[in-house]
Design brief:
The complex is a heterotrimer of chains A (254), B (216) and C (368). By secondary structure, chain A is mostly helical. Chain A is flat. The longest helix of chain A has 33 residues, at 50-82. Chain A is built from 11 helices and no strands. Chain B has 9 helices and no strands. In chain C, the strands form 4 sheets. A 6-stranded mixed beta sheet of chain C has the order 6-7-8-3-9-10, sandwiched between helices. In chain C, strands 2-1-4-5 form a 4-stranded antiparallel beta sheet, covered by helices on one side. In chain C, a hairpin with a 2-residue loop joins strand 1 and strand 2 (14-24). The chains are: A mainly alpha (254), B mainly alpha (216), C alpha/beta (368). Chains in contact: A-B, B-C.
Chain lengths: 254, 216, 368
């Protein structure tokens, strides 16, 4: 039946000659599609906006960088604090609130930021900061909670101070999960920056939304494709950090 | 405040847009379940297929929603459906795939193989085993995935107003363009409330469908 | 009841089970024993067609299993696995009634049978029927697993190392319970184990496997006394004769109608009895026959008087229901070569001596 055929197809992919054949077909297909687009003037249309793209992309990344740095700078310490002995009882309540926060639609957050701060870059950064903060806090708490308690006990038995335990035992063991949280958060961040345009924050959103309003697909694509590529790139870059920077002993991928 | 007056005065419109919003999300999630759950079950048969499918689905997730709308518009324009309902629904279906497929896959993989062997040895047919053992155990995790997809989709559907799909995002977009804080707040609050309500309702459903023997 | 006729299983080029011929009579407990990878589990799984045989036939109650639909076959055979496999989403009651429900039994009938079976394994139905597996201890889960296999009253039970996952203390208890259950229910059981002690304790027949072949198939005592080859001898262990002691009850090896004296008898009477039988001690019993003490031959020779004045306490007594291994152990504990055997009420029934035990063990060699 169908499932068996799909499975047979998937297994076929393991044969090296089939794989290189498919790769060739894919590249050939991409070329053909590109040629088709060129014939329709699409590619040149997109390239027309290249100077805009570079400028806006820089703005875009700046927004991500600032809001992301703020989110990490606040989120990490907050997550660490909430897993400390003294504040443990607040952890659950705060986690509930943060979970609630992640449910709130991104556009609503941007809109609420605007209602408080007006228009321009500051509300955009604030809105982005808020929605990047939440996954980072959640993953920091989760990562620290996942550190096996017997490791902490061993460290205490060896005579480490709480600060040393945090630095040498807890954080290294939690860093993989924490980085995963930062990765998710930043990927979402990059994807949400286009909305910043709506409240005057700039970024590649300008090309996308204007392209929609003017019914100009080339402008739209000139904004959409770089945004998508940026998001994939940020996700990939941090994924590589996860793979290479996290020591082999605590790295499930290595 | 004025916003409250605004809300009261415009309840019918708010209601209508809410229904539009719910309609877009429900249709997309329903179709996503019909495609995602079977795919999730199928890929449990092959590790390689699982890796590939999950990778593709997660790549889709990294594409920003407005960008995906942007990419769908020219394509769908070719069949005259460039803006409005269809690109929104298609994008939402695509975004729902990862949570649903991944959760279905994880849920089925996590069923203890000893249970499958016991079921088979006792004389259950495959369907009986799925019905009596595997699905009841996998269901809570699958519904969790559906829940994530629904909340995600409510957020993205709000953005879909910019490609003409309507819904509660319209209040927000008009509020921004007309610098009308009443509309802005109405939209933001309405869509947030919708998301939170949906989340808790589905959480309650998830709990209700979890056998007491499975609750931790 | 179960007959394997030249059953073979090949996995590609590997022969996992090689032309096994075996017959398990109704009501027997047959333990398939052997080291890892010897084919015992594969053989058992071919009985309920979880693994289809490559060649050969298997007959259950006279019918060829290849001709029965596999699902129907499995519903008529109870199956217990090592990891137990209770369905966590169902209550104990629903778990037990899985096969009866599949067979369409009347609910009241199946539910009351579930309660009855739980009582037979010492689990209070009032408490346990409505519980979920995660609320049960390992030993309790295992018992429920066995009960589940018995729910539809199948004539045959297949068990794959069912007691392996339980700690040794509970394992003994559950094994004893199981044997009591089997004594009442008299099912035909095929049981896979890698533990020779468990097999010796529970089996009425043991099948020793090696590299897919059935090496020896006999009663536990015969396998212990007459291992076919060096492999079996090594597998059962170099203490196999001691293991045989477990198989014999004191009652079956003791000398009955033993000489006895009463408190008021004279030492002369005692001495005469001892010389008659060639013993160096005689047991003193109470008015109704309960063992109370003993008189040694040296005392009887040197002293004068009644038994009551010169009796000594018994060094140890052994119950007639205990096995010879316990008896020998007790002999070593007290440093004696014989023990008085009493029943539950303390009545003196006989005695075992090292000589009588050696005699009983050697009987099987003298028959050759």
């Amino acid at each position: 039946m169908a499932a068996a055929r799909i499975m047979a197809a998937a297994k076929l992919m393991d044969v090296p000659s089939v794989r290189s054949g498919m790769r060739f077909a894919f590249i050939a297909g991409a070329f053909a599609f590109g040629a088709y687009l060129q014939a329709r003037g699409v590619l040149s249309g997109i390239l027309q906006h290249s100077s805009d793209v570079t400028y806006l992309a820089r703005q875009h990344l700046a927004l991500t960088a600032i809001s992301g740095a703020l989110a990490i700078g606040v989120g990490l310490p907050l997550g660490i604090v909430l897993t400390r002995q003294r504040f443990r009882r607040y952890a659950n309540a705060v986690t509930q609130i943060v979970n609630l926060g992640t449910t709130i639609p991104t556009l609503a957050i941007i809109a609420l930021a605007m209602s408080v701060f007006g228009i321009g870059a500051p509300p955009a950064i604030f809105g982005l900061f808020t929605l990047t903060l939440l996954p980072i806090v959640l993953n920091t708490i989760a990562g620290l909670r996942m550190v096996p308690p017997h490791l902490i006990e061993a460290a205490r038995g060896m005579g480490m101070t709480p600060g040393q335990i945090l630095r040498r035992v807890e954080l290294p063991n939690a860093v993989f999960v924490i980085l995963a949280g930062i990765r998710t958060a930043l990927a979402i961040n990059v994807g949400t920056v286009p909305l910043a345009f709506l409240i005057g924050g700039g970024g590649l959103g300008e090309l996308i939304f204007t392209g929609i309003d003017l019914m100009e697909p080339t402008m739209l694509l000139a904004g959409a494709i770089p945004t998508a590529l940026l998001a994939i790139f940020v996700d990939f870059a941090i994924g590589q950090c996860q793979y290479w920077l996290v020591p082999r002993g605590v790295n499930p991928l290595r | 405040m004025e916003t409250i007056n605004f809300i009261v005065a415009n309840l019918p419109v708010i209601g209508q847009r809410t229904l539009e919003h719910i309609s877009i999300v429900s249709v997309s999630v329903a179709i996503a379940i019909l495609t995602g759950v079977p795919i999730g079950i199928l890929i449990t048969q092959s590790q390689i297929a699982a890796d590939r499918v999950l990778y593709v689905a997660s790549v889709i997730m990294t594409i920003p929603s407005i960008a995906l709308f942007g990419l769908l518009i020219p394509i769908l324009s070719l069949i005259g459906q460039g803006i409005g309902y269809l690109p929104a629904v298609i994008a939402l279906i695509l975004y729902s795939q990862l949570p649903i497929i991944r959760n279905t896959y994880t849920a089925v993989m996590n069923v203890d193989p000893a249970l499958r062997e016991a079921a088979r040895g006792m004389g259950m047919t495959t369907i009986q085993r799925l019905r009596e053992v595997e699905l009841p155990i996998a269901l809570p995790v699958i519904i969790n995935g559906v829940r994530n997809a629904v909340v995600l989709n409510i957020a993205i559907a709000a953005i879909a107003t910019y490609i003409g799909a309507g819904g509660l995002g319209t209040f927000i977009s008009r509020g921004i363009s007309q610098t009308d804080i009443r509309q802005l707040l109405t939209g933001a609050l309405a869509v947030s409330l919708l998301a939170i309500t949906a989340d808790y309702t589905l959480l309650a459903l998830q709990r209700a469908l979890t056998s007491p023997g499975l609750r931790t | 009841m179960i007959r394997l006729d030249r059953v073979t299983k090949m996995f590609g080029p590997i022969t996992a089970v090689d032309a096994v011929d075996m017959e398990v009579p109704a009501g027997a407990v047959c333990v398939l024993l052997g080291p890892s990878g010897c084919g015992k589990t594969t053989t058992m799984k071919m009985i309920n067609r979880l693994i289809p045989p490559s060649s050969g036939k298997i007959f259950v109650d006279g019918r060829d299993t290849a001709e029965i639909d596999e699902v129907t076959l499995r519903r008529s055979i109870g199956y217990v696995i090592q990891q137990i496999g209770l369905f966590p989403n169902k209550t104990v009651e629903d778990n037990i009634c899985v096969v009866p429900d599949l067979l369409g039994w009347d609910r009241r009938k199946s539910r009351s049978r579930a309660a009855e079976l739980l009582r037979m394994v010492n689990l209070d139905p009032g408490i346990f029927l409505k519980r979920y597996p995660k609320e049960l201890s390992g030993g309790q889960q295992q018992r429920v697993g066995v009960v589940r296999a018995l729910a539809a009253d199948p004539p045959v039970l297949l068990m794959d190392e069912p007691f392996g996952a339980i700690d040794p203390i509970n394992r003994e208890v559950i094994q004893d319970e199981f044997m009591k259950l089997q004594a009442e229910l008299k099912k035909t059981i095929v049981f896979v184990s890698h533990d020779i002690d468990e097999a010796v304790k529970m089996a009425s027949r043991i099948a020793i496997f090696r590299d897919g072949r059935l090496i020896q198939y006999d009663t536990p005592d015969n396998i212990l006394a007459h291992p076919t080859d060096a492999f079996v001898a090594e597998f059962v262990g170099s203490d196999r004769t001691l293991k045989r002691l477990r198989l014999v009850k004191v009652e079956d090896a003791m000398m009955k109608e033993p000489p006895r004296v009463r408190a008021e008898d004279t030492l002369d009477t005692a001495l005469r009895l001892m010389e008659e039988h060639g013993h160096y001690a005689v047991v003193m019993v109470g008015p109704r026959g309960r063992a109370r003490g003993l008189v040694r031959v040296e005392i009887a020779r040197d002293k004068k008087g009644t038994v009551a004045e010169h009796q000594e306490p018994l060094p140890g007594v052994i119950n007639i229901d205990d096995d010879l291994r316990t008896a020998v152990s007790l002999m070593f504990t007290h440093g004696v070569t014989w023990l008085a055997c009493v029943d539950h009420d303390g009545f003196y029934k006989g005695y075992v001596s090292q000589r009588s035990i050696t005699n009983a063990l050697g009987a099987t060699y003298r028959d050759d």
